[in-house]
Amino acid sequence: MHPVFANLPVTVFEVMSRLAREHDAINLGQGFPDDPGPEDVRRKAAEAVVSGWNQYPPMMGLPELRAAVARHYTHWQDVTLDPESEIMVTSGATEALTGAILTLIEPGDEVVLFQPLYDSYLPMVKRAGGIPKLVRLEPPHWRITEDALKRVFTKKTKAVLFNNPHNPAGIVYGMEDLQLLARFCEEYDAVAICDEVWEHVVFDGRKHISMLSVPGMRERTVKIGSAGKIFCLTGWKVGFVCAAPALMRGLSKAHQFITFTTPPNLQTAVAYGLGKEDDYFLGMRHDLARSRDRFAAGLKTVGFDPLESQGTYFMNVDLAALGINERDSDFCQRLVTENKVAAIPVSAFYAEDPVTSVVRFCFAKRDATLDGAIKRLRVASKR
Q1: pTM of the predicted model, to two decimals?
Q2: Which region holds residue 343: left if phi is over 0, alpha if psi is between -120 and 50, else beta?
Q3: Domain made up of 3-30+279-380: CATH architecture
């Protein structure tokens, strides 16, 4: 067995979800919403199973979905894409990330990553033979600095893996941050693999900016999106990759031998969904922001001071700022077993030199779920 996978521990998400089940806890750990997703989109998927095509669709994705992705990104992000040569449908964003890493990284290449980081990044970089170069982000602002980039970019840098909006930090990076990163990518001839799955989950009037739109990055960016995040349908595993033709040719070869294709009924439904009126997408943001604000207000009533959540489904609490002298992992273990609320220790998102005082909660839940969690957290905050 390959040592990269043989030596991996069970993920913290699986551990905390198992403990939540065992202790009948409210699970605010894993990032899935209570919302079942828009009914009209789900009905389109059901209709397509009964009345539509159920054999292999085109490897690159249904033409109607690729065209819908192009129109959607032109409308929302001012990014112009050719659906024939610059867009590919994948079985979720994780497949897209895997394919991009396996396509672009050769043994000995260096890859810049920002920690805290999504748990699939590091194993796939190592499996491709890449050498991770880690940038440590810190609360409360999780900023990217020029000095930090100078320490990790070298003549061996082949790619940077960048998540924006950022999970678990809940930060939405703006043009200034993107231009800084773009300058290093251009200087060191690196490709930006951009995990933009939270692009529609941004709050307080913010607008997601794709790295594809940054001057100088059009030919050296791989943009990855997720219908699961856009429509709160995380189990569907429908993703899309956008890249210039020269990059897409290699990306499509990897996709061909990873999954080859994605269920056609789900593609049909997502194509329909991406064409929904702006009110749907703005309403989704409004509803999630309301849940965020409700949960933040509740946390404050029980003694927690949450960090700012600019996007994603997540809100963080810094235990150290509250005077709680306990590692985040120990706190989360106690929280789920004694107080019956599951959360995620953010230290689990670090490969080295972790921040050990931050706990992540998912607020994409019904009011009753959030309110019930707050009642149980009241005791935990007094320790």
Answers
A1: 0.95
A2: beta
A3: Alpha-Beta Complex (3.90)
